Amino acid sequence: xxxxxxxxxxxxxxxxxxxxxxxxxxxxxxxxxxxxxxxxxxxxxxxxxxxxxxxxxxxxxxxxxxxxxxxxxxxxxxxxxxxxxxxxxxxxxxxxxxxxxxxxxxxxxxxxxxxxxxxxxxxxxxxxxxxxxxxxxxxxxxxxxxxxxxxxxxxxxxxxxxxxxxxxxxxxxxxxxxxxxxxxxxxxxxxxxxxxxxxxxxxxxxxxxxxxxxxxxxxxxxxxxxxxxxxxxxxxxxxxxxxxxxxx
Length: 248
Ligand SMILES: Nc1nc2c(ncn2[C@@H]2O[C@H](COP(=O)(O)OP(=O)(O)OP(=O)(O)O)[C@@H](O)[C@H]2O)c(=O)[nH]1
Ligand SMILES: [Mg+2]
What we know:
The chain is of the alpha/beta class. The protein has helices spanning 6-19, 47-60, 75-88, 101-115, 132-149, 167-178, 197-205, 226-234; strands spanning 2-3, 35-40, 65-70, 91-93, 119-124, 154-161, 183-187, 209-213, 221-223, 246-247. The chain is 42% helix and 19% strand. Helix 1 runs antiparallel to helix 8, helix 2 (47-60) runs parallel beside helix 3 and helix 4 (101-115) runs parallel beside helix 5 (132-149). The chain is globular, with a radius of gyration of 19 Å. The protein starts with a strand and ends with a strand. The site of magnesium ion (MG) has 5 residues, from helix 2.
């Protein structure tokens, strides 16, 4: 048997970190009718784009999806989500600019229930995790989601830009204190083969990575693959980590 090179050994240790949580690379659970997913994160991380991409994936799989325009800070944000909805066949529930995001989410869930839709995807305004009042607002939205969706029927995803570096850890920590996070979406992964900060998010905060954003187009969202991620991170040729017969 061949001796395992140190880099492969390290890679296998990293793989074990991801293997500890079966939600790594797991798609959204469609438990309730509707199930609700709320997307949160700092400004420009890719929340609205991810909402559109997820809506498209779930519609193509035969589900009815309602988008909730809970980013009420900018009129353009509501229009951006509506455009995604029109493109992929999802209805968008919106109120006016400046309205209460929790009320938008409430209406979207009620309306999805009335229609028998399978999934509500709520987009939220970008916010710095250091802004206390904005984090309090997010907590209020989350309470409405949990109450209206019912136990176990909601997902709270933190959208993290892969290019962000170490700051992403602090974001995950603070957003995780405000929301019952069920996972991470690692966006803009097409811009970097790294995103290594995710390792500490997964290892120290116990948050699974569910999806990766691979570009700006509707089809550019994939389930997260721990092995491919580690191979890219360590600069290993694809498939190296699955070689059998290596002795550690
Ligand atoms: N290359 C690349 N670009 C992305 C990806 N996801 C989003 N973007 C781009 O990033 C920019 C910001 O995306 P948005 O979806 O508007 O981000 P947001 O988090 O909703 O932004 P705010 O609402 O302003 O906080 C846009 O130009 C997107 O096209 C991705 O996976 N890869
Ligand atoms: Mg947005």
